[in-house]
Amino acid sequence: MRHLFALAMLLPLSACLRAGEDEPRAVTFAYKAPAIGQTVRETSELDVRLKLKHSAGAQVIEESNDDFRMRQVKQETALESDARGVTKLKVRYDSVEHKRAGEELDRPLVNGRAYVVTARGGKVEFMGEEARKLHPFELAFLEEDYAEFGTLDPFIAWFDGRKVKVGETLELEGPLGRRLLNLGKDDPEKIEAFTLTLTGTRPQAGFEVGVFKTRLVMSKRQAQDGNDLRMATTFEGELTLGIANAWIVSCHLTGPAELSGKISEGGIKMNVAGSGRVRMDLDTRVNE
């Protein structure tokens, strides 16, 4: 799953117009699969900072801070591809960190290891370096990270061949946003609204990219074993998309989060309320 933060600027009107024309400049995006042997380095980060209050009736039982950070750096090298994109790749996880309040929660077994991922016959297969047998924890991590591997990314397909005017706002449907955020069909997050407004173009990480001011509204509900928690977040920020390949080059989003609900611990039923901020970042760079 990946992450994103906030700063997007509108270009001056003069930069949005062609000389002698009244119509806004338009950009046409086109998909291009990575070249065989091409390596893409991806850095993603999720940072959640919440202040929580547990209460029973008018009595405050506990107040606490919940700070969670996940950071992942990996490199993917394309080995085989077809019209849908890469169908076989080598991935190396340079670093995977999960921390709460600054303390490391766990160190996934994939850290520092490389794997071959292959889409074949509608299934995704995984193999360790030198055909090493995978630990169940490794396999579970890879299956989550590459659940949709080998299928055409609907976000890319939606942009392939699409012409977008500077200043135009696009409203994306739920499935497009879920794939972008690496959300599976069983994940409880719901995308309430997702808009991209093209503000201009610029060179970035070796590409000419379209720069989009981004707004994403999400909600989440988890109800199980007598607990019922709801969370709502409104993200704003910037997403950049390669014009000549429709790859996401970067995505930085941040926004306020509100948490509410009821839980039961040790036979005590409590109300939970919280607020804070969530930040998601994604940056990619091609290593030729």
Give the number of DSSP strands.
Answer: 14
Distance between the termini: 25 Å
- Total helices: the number is 3
**Overall SS class:** mainly beta
Percent range for β-strand residues? over 45%
Give the % helix: under 10%
Rounded to an integer in angstroms, the radius of gyration calculated over CA atoms is: 21 Å
Give, in order, the helices and strands.
EEEEEEEHHEEHEEEEE
Descriptive account of the structure:
By secondary structure, the chain is mainly beta. It has a domain at about 15-75 and about 150-285. Helix content is about 10%, strand content about 60%. It has helices at about 135-145, 155-160, 175-180; strands at about 25-30, 40-55, 60-80, 85-100, 105, 115-120, 125-130, 165, 170, 190-205, 205-225, 225-240, 250-265, 270-285. The strands form two sheets. Strands 2, 3, 4, 5, 6, 7, 9, 10, 11, 12, 13 and 14 form a twelve-stranded antiparallel beta sheet that branches.
